[in-house]
Amino acid sequence: MVNLATHVTAVLARLGIPPDAPLVAAVSGGRDSVALLLALAEGPRRPHLRVAHVDHGLRPEGPAEAEFVGRLCARLGVSLSATRLALDTAAVGNLAARLREARYAFLREVAGEGFILTAHHADDQAVTLLMRLIEGAALPGLAAMAPRQRNLVRPLLDVPREALEAWLRARGEAWCEDPSNAVERAFRNRVRERYLPLFETERPGAARRLALSAARLREDDEALQALAARLAEPALHGWNWVALPLQPLPPPAILRRLLARLLERRWGLEGPGAEAWAAMAGPLAAGRTVNLPGRTTAVWRRGELCLHRAASLPAYTVAIPTPGVYTLPLGRLVVSAPSAAPGRERTDAGALPLPLIARPWRPGETAGPHGRPVADRLARAGVPGYRRRGWPVLVDAADRVVALPLPLQAAGAGPGFDDAAQGPEEGH
User: Fold this and answer.
1) SS3 324
2) Is 359 helix (H, G, I), strand (E, B) or coil?
3) For the whole model, what pTM was predicted?
4) What are the strands, taking DSSP E only, across 176-239?
5) pLDDT tens digit sequence for 35-87
6) Backbone phi, then psi, for 307, in 5-degree steps?
7) Facing residues of 335 across strands?
8) CA 367 to chain centre
9) Alpha-carbon distance 119 to 138, whole Å?
10) Alpha-carbon Rg of the chain, whole angstroms?
11) Measuring CA to CA, how many Å separate 373 from each of 367, 370, 377?
């Protein structure tokens, strides 16, 4: 029989939970959460342990379960925080989702900067994996529940339900039975109470092995995510675009994660789902523009992956009193005084009539000693079309264009997606 207290202690250490971190165990009074509480109370982290109990206010057994948890905590000498929810069950929206949101809001309030521990076990993990297989989930979904998500920890994911029950019975411990778990209206309940037992009958240990498969799938997904993160490091960005040099285009499993990372880091958007991705992978590899969430498009051409978001250009004016680094909506503008390059006409920033103002260029405007259109100068300088909109010009107090900053080099990648343009540059 598994020594649950030793097991939980080892899992928490493996997941990087500091030995003195505050722990809040979510205890409903059912078998699983009672086993978790007792395992924690028998371990070295007991001095940092407290319990949170939520009565959802939907079942007549709720008050009795709250009393049971109170008595158990008093016997163990563990502090208890309890609440009873009073949600409007007739309100519009998914009741289960609203209950879950309210429950976790209370748990976060109790935990503060500490860690929330729940009693999800191997059977729960197996049920989640089976449901997501049926729903056609991709690898991130098949990885099921994570052992740790920030301060939410599930230390029993590799322990079968029968092992938890055996551990409790060996100690003569009681628990509360939730009759709603046996009601088969919910699909999850049917999978847990009807289908998973069939697998166990045919192949004893099926739940444990399914949970192990989910853990292996999570390892694979994390490895692919890490690779996508490394590929994203050179990405540059402006106010409504992200550009990343990619040659060749990575395989679909990595590319999908790469797109999701760029969308989330730049605009806080979720990546394309599995079904949507299946329809866009081929066209993207063929160099065609595809639609992404949040009015965003992606295209891969000439060795560059570009994401562009349809958005209104923010109006901006930035005073440029002296050479230096200035933050604009499309990135950083570095106003410096570079030395002249052979065969190239340059305007020394120090010779410009500072102070100046940076603002977006306007159609029809010209710049440079020969009065060339700004649009032509940007094109001749090799500025991609998606970057030209909103490009700054430097104007004097009379709003006359004095200089057009053009990039000599792009720099700044990684977490900040920093895009630098050195200038002003003339003579292109």
Assistant:
1) strand
2) strand
3) 0.73
4) 236-237
5) 999 999 999 999 999 999 999 888 888 999 999 999 999 999 999 999 998 87
6) -110, 130
7) 324, 423
8) 43
9) 25
10) 30
11) 6, 9, 6
